[in-house]
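Bench log, entry 3. Co-assembly request; chain sequences pasted below exactly as received.
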Amino acid sequence: MSTRRETEAGHGHLLELRDLGVRYRSGRGDVQAVRGVNLTLDAGQTLGLAGESGCGKSTVAMSVLRLLPPTAEVTGKVLLEGEDVAAMSWGRLRAVRWARGSVVFQGAMHALNPVRRVGEQIAEPMRVHGTDGSVADLLAQVELPVSRARAYPHELSGGQKQRVMIAMALACSPRLVVADEPTTALDVIVQKQVLGVLNQLVTERGIGLVMISHDLSVLTSTCDRLAVMYRGEVVEEGPAREVVASPRHEHTRALAAAFPTVGDPAFRYASTGASALTEPLLRTEGLRVSFRDRGGELVRAVDGVDLEIRPREILALVGQSGSGKTTLARTLLGLQRADSGRVLFDGAPLPTSSRGLREYRRQVQLVLQDPTSALNPRHSVYEAVAEGLRIHHTPGDEAALVADALSRAELRPPEEFSGSLPHELSGGQRQRVVIAGALALGPRLLVADEPVASLDASVRGEILALLLRLRDELDLAALVITHDLGLAWNIADRVAVMYRGSIVEQGPVEQVLLAPRHEYTRALLSAVPTTSGGSPVEAGA
Amino acid sequence: MSGSSIVWRRRRSAAAGVWREFRGNRGGLVGLVVLGAVVVLALLVPLLTDEAGLDVTRVDAPLWAPPSAEHWLGTDNTGRDVLLLTWWGTRVSLVVGLAATVLSVGIGSLIGVLAAHFGGWASATLLRVTDFFLVLPSLVLAIALSTVLPRGLGTIVLAIGVTSWPSTALLVRAQTLTIEGRPFIERARALGGGHRHVIGRHVLPAVLPLVFVNTTLTVASAIVAESTLSFLGLGDPTRVSWGSMLHTATVQGAVSKGAWWFLLPPGLGVVVVVLAFTSCGRALETVLDPRLRGER
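Structure output for the full assembly:
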């Protein structure tokens, strides 16, 4: 059908954005999400689009296939193989979608239909477009066994689902693939596999890939060129390594600084706090926790863990998702009962009575991963921070204590924030509120479960710095749970690596991350994408 | 600046916001005005009319008289004014409707929240009890109850309340489960909060809007249930209600006599009050659940 079009495309680029602007109309006034974006992409090339949440990068991606909601007003031109997307008829647009350009949507967890087998879902675009192709071939391309075609989405892991999404995007052999945060929410090892699959497809099939992410290290390890967006505009564009190595715009600099290189002393913020001689504040002895899964199988989530946290120490617990990190944290807080083994706090075993547990939880506080859902949307900042004080009937002036906790969490002046509701705050401010709520009780140990995983790059550093300052000012100890080795390098004194329910390696940060002894620690380290290219272990070896 | 004053100011402004939204919903507003009028009329009836008009021994109007200038809605089989009967009937319908709803929603919310919060065997037991009441034909149970217990308003309220709570319980349980799965419950537990704290501070405030909406819809069905039971002759014989009027009309052969004026007013009364409650409930649901607000 398209010999003429292909010759036309031969002159131009695979994708060209000319002065693209997108404005969202809403009842509360118009929002200019994207303005004046000029980008080009040729076949066989990869273009990375970086930026924080809300900078308009997803809007740009959706405008390529005209997938924006009807409230969006698009100006400028989107040329797909020389053809203006805005001028296409509805039928033409349907033919172009997926056959020429396709999208790997953000959040594979929610983008798949839960009640249909993944094979049927991969086959769907082929059926709609009447193109040939086999699901088995597509699954092979994304390195999934063919038998998985009969699986339902919930039977697949996060990485497998993401690969199904990629297979779906490839179904009609498109020339352009737009991947919107394809590896967010995946842990490093799976992320490396998914990125590998995408890279291979670009080289083997000569497709053009637009990859969107807030993580510069992911983009530099996959993309030839990089465009950094800030407040709807492209502020910097160029070869990926060059942009990262010598950023010209300050926002690029902030983004690059937020993703640490393990082993680089510039990213090591921690000054060692605890001395090895002090008595441990919290200690576990042979801790075991198991669940029964749906099939009645016994799953050992935590399998014989011995851990020590000393006063004024930041211990990072790293491991892949599913390694039992969160279960361990919940057990330490007494939210989950252990099958065997002991948790000792200050030398005394964890109380079992509800009164004893309540007293214990004054000393040990939890900071959750996603501050947006960790705060009751109906409670103001004041109520959220005062919640713990009210539970424990803390004597003293409640308002003063709340103001004190807020200013310790660097929400200053506290009066300005106490009346706000969570949705009126930014992500970083919300996490500060959660931290303030924990601080209000004057705890001695903070358990933070992925404290910065859902925050923007620029906020990440601030929250980590806050944790360090709190350690210095209040003599707090902290157990930071993370899948991000860079975070451990940033702030931890010691690292414990968890794999399938047990601690396979623990020790001082420098020792574990720079000279790993266990196989799994090495695998984790080599999977970390870095802005400089090679992994720290290879570079060090 | 004290904390509670902030809280109260915010609650007031939230309530004002709800009212502003509600005002924008025409159906809900009409329902509310009609309800207000009915309630005012029901409250004023002893002041404006003479209760003696309901006493069969003290009326001297002709029997089965069609509407006239003197009796706007005619008279019944004993010569009582139908307008007066309908007017007085409003009181019983409203009282029974509201009281039965409070009982039903109260039981339902309690069981729903407890079943979702505690889980395990407590939840299983409560849910089996709910299932038992759910599959029980409620009319038959209500009839059985009203025959066993002494006849009176209290029995009717009890019969309706006890049979209509399972749907509320299931609704509240589902909502509670979604709230309990949210991380802020985990945070509250980690802060040291016990069952009472989690339920009182987090679960109930989040479930209440739903309960509130459910209440207005339950009132409507309770009024219908009251009419049904009275129509079947199980009501309080000493009081006039819309259901008992319909019962009398049928038994006395109003249909064969063509006495439409005896049948229509109580029937329309039920329809108007039920519709008013339903439209209020729907409007409230739209206001409180932003997802339903989409296109208007």
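The mean pLDDT of chain B is 85. The first helix of chain B runs from residue 3 to 23.
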